[in-house]
Amino acid sequence: MINLFQPQVGKEELDAVAEVFDSHWLGHGPRTKAFEADFAEHIGVDAEQVVFINSGTAGLFLALEALDLAEGDEVVLPSLSFVAAANAIGSTGARPVFCDVDARTLNPTAEDVERSLTPRTKAVIVLHYGGYPGDIVRIARLCRERGVALVEDAACSVASRVGGRAVGSFGDLAMWSFDAMKVMVTGDGGMLYVRDRELAARARRLAYHGLAQPSGFGHAKVSHRWWELDVPEIGRRVIGNDLTAAIGSVQLRRLPELVARRREIVELYDRELAGLDGVRTPPPLPEGHESSYYFYWVQTSPEIRDEVASELYAAGIYTTFRYAPLHKVPAYRAQDEVLPASDKASGETLCLPLHPGLADDDVRTVAAALREAVEARHK
Fold this sequence. Notes:
Largest sheet: 7 strands, mixed
Organism: Streptomyces thinghirensis
Radius of gyration: 21 Å
Low-confidence stretches: none
CATH topology of the largest domain: Aspartate Aminotransferase, domain 2
Protein name: DegT/DnrJ/EryC1/StrS family aminotransferase
Shape: globular
CATH architecture of the largest domain: 3-Layer(aba) Sandwich
CATH superfamily of the largest domain: Type I PLP-dependent aspartate aminotransferase-like (Major domain)
Cofactor: pyridoxal 5'-phosphate
Order of helices and strands: HHEHEHEHEHEEEEEHHEEHHEH
Mean pLDDT: 95
InterPro entries: DegT/StrS_aminotransferase, PyrdxlP-dep_Trfase, PyrdxlP-dep_Trfase_major, PyrdxlP-dep_Trfase_small
Number of strands: 12
CATH class of the largest domain: Alpha Beta
Strand content: 5-15%
Pfam family, one: DegT_DnrJ_EryC1
């Protein structure tokens, strides 16, 4: 089977894990701090503003918890988002309000977001679809003008930039995911960024039980009776550890080569699928935009999309659609929302295999199978 995603890990990552084993310190420690510092430099912020956590989902929950949302508040997000974002909103008692997207880029525009704002809107969450930055500059400006917090779901966008500025640094808070399917992986893991330094310190406390200071070995040298607890507010344990951080540091060093290979695959798909009637490939990036190339998506007529996916699967090629529209999920009680572009895109879009482990021949095999399946249905 030609997989949709496949992590790229090897001897460097194994050696880094072996060093952690040899240190006899597996938990949150020096390698976690080093990874945070390196990642902060990667996105152009200070290390105190980032927290390595155990998943991107934990980052979304933590970000919204830090905003002190409550019942009656609203948070706007695109319907074509991962379920974790809506769940994080619901966990606070606030209500998710789904906005539409551009049917080609699958990213919301500033106008899409603005149409969904109300006096009850406290925050906006923006997903950068497939690693493509989207309209983030204008959305960030809109949120500042309206006094609304902006949370960037940069799970797919660890190397994405606009005008040289890292995606994730435009908003008030952001998170990245490093799970086994992402551009860079730690197995499970994520990073949280918080612009406001006091709020960043609070988020760090909330990520570790709400403790104002550690109570273990690391604090013994600076505190008498270090075992006593100082818990100003209730938190949970969602911090990362040195094992996964060691993998992350290697992956971060390798990130340019991983993204470069993804770009080559995207360019090859573009060439192989050029001129194929009935198939639209991703639109070109605007000037100054850089992508992480997490998804490569094609769009066909909805009458054939599912049949094409089934035929590719039978040929040993796994495809899917990410992300199913959340306004159709009963739990969020938003089925009456009218979001025509989201509905259109969700019926037409198919994500093709994209990861650095693909050989050029694999990409040509996928493209040829797609061409054959589509052409057979357009005769």
